[in-house]
Amino acid sequence: MNDQLKKLHDFIDSSVRDMIALETLLTAHPAISPNSNGEGELDKCIALEKWLREHGITHLERFDAPDPAAKGKVRPNLVATIPGKNDDFTIWVMAHMDVVPEGECSLWATDPWTVVERDGKLYGRGVEDNQQGLVAGIFAALAFIKNGIIPAHTVKLLFVADEEEGSAYGIDYLLKNYSLFRTNDMIIIPDGGASDGSSIEVAEKNIMWLEITVHGKQAHGSRPDEGINACLAGCDLAVQLNDMEKYFNAKDALFDPPYSTFQPTRKEKNVPNINTIPGEDVFCMDCRILPCYSLDSVRAETAKRVAQIEQKYGVKIEISEQQAMESPATPVDAPVVVSLQKAVKEVYHVDAKPVGIGGGTVGAYLRAAGYQAAVWSRMDETAHQPNEYTKLENLVGDAKVFAAVML
Predict the structure, then answer these.
(1) pLDDT at position 135 over 90
(2) What is the CB-side half-sphere exposure of residue 261 using CA atoms within 13 A?
(3) Considering 163, 172, 236, 398, which one is annotated as catalytic?
(4) Is 123 within 8 Å of 111 (Cβ atoms)?
(5) Distance (Å, whole) CA 10 – CA 27
(6) What crossing angle do the helices spanning 16-27 and 42-54 adopt, rounded to 10°?
(7) Contact at 8 Å (CB) between 352 and 192?
(8) 3-state secondary structure at position 288
(9) Strand partners, 283
(10) Is 393 left (phi over 0), alpha (psi -120 to 50) or beta?
(11) Is 117 a catalytic residue?
């Protein structure tokens, strides 16, 4: 370890109480989406801005997305800049300010909105998702400022809104309305990972959520010949769509499971009684497709199978896409991946491997826009659970990893 990196790491080691204080401050400002009966991120963002300025991070810019339902009628996105020796590309650490509601309070051992320290852990809503990454990024940057060390390249900390509810007011809004990123930027998203830090997420399966409405003809249960059973047609279609796993049958060991999945999920209530043939039936499909297949190819095959069911049963079928997202993978040898692997090895002494996931992150928006992003953190994945916690050793260790990448 060179002298500069040692100074950075020593500062981070000495900042544990300050990290706890910042976690405590942020947790005390619930940043819940209006969609979940919250007020949004404004109060939390203002508190964070004030804290950053007081601690020496003063180059701050706000990019507010208008939202009439939120407090102040905005959903704030905040960028903090630490100038580097070189501005040929930027190293980003991107975290989100919003959190999910606390859920059933009786399942919590402590007040969700008051940080409690116990046995090397901090408990509270949001302390891991995503304040662990948010705080770690801040203290990595502060280590440079407080030691008078200039990072090799410009560093930017991005604190976004609305990650928990789809990012329409967060990264999606920023990508559509501003030119913040360059194609050679390194973007780290500390919002997921393994408990030992060994997973660097570089790819996501393409996501398609479908709501399918089957229109038939209602009839008495004793006279199915006088009706058209929408439920029967819907069940057959669900099986046919699930069978697309055999059609889109590529395998990719980057993912677990290593294949595309097409799963029937939610089913709406149709008729209230047993002895009525339903004239309408609604169900949903959750499709997670390997990146080697475009969503358009999936749409085409879906339409083909829908047409077959319509002809077979004499029904009319409508499909609504509730969500559709596709993005290319970040190359496993991209600079952001290689830099993270080196830093993780130095700090945590593990070999971090590139992986793909079936879930969705904000990384998909960035990759779809042509930017190389990697999702990494060392965490126990207690997000959205009662008694959510973060380990202090993860806060400190992740900050050290980010500092090593920035150096």
Answers:
(1) yes
(2) 14
(3) 163
(4) no
(5) 26
(6) 150
(7) no
(8) strand
(9) 212, 267
(10) alpha
(11) no
Whether 98 is a known active-site residue: answer yes
Q: What percent of the chain has pLDDT over 90?
A: 98
pLDDT digits (tens, 9 = 90+) for 318-364: 999 998 999 899 999 999 999 999 999 999 999 999 999 988 889 99
State if pTM tops 0.85. yes
Catalytic residue among 98, 164, 172, 326: 98
Find tokens 């879930």 and name the residue. 359
The CA-atom distances, in angstroms, between 211 and each of 75, 218, 241 are 29, 21, 12
> CA-based Rg of the chain, rounded to a whole angstrom?
24
Asked whether 57 and 142 are in contact (CB, 8 A), the reply is yes
| Cis ω for the linkage preceding 257 (within 30 of 0) | yes
Per the DSSP assignment, residues forming a β-bridge with 264 are 285
Residues composing the chain: 407
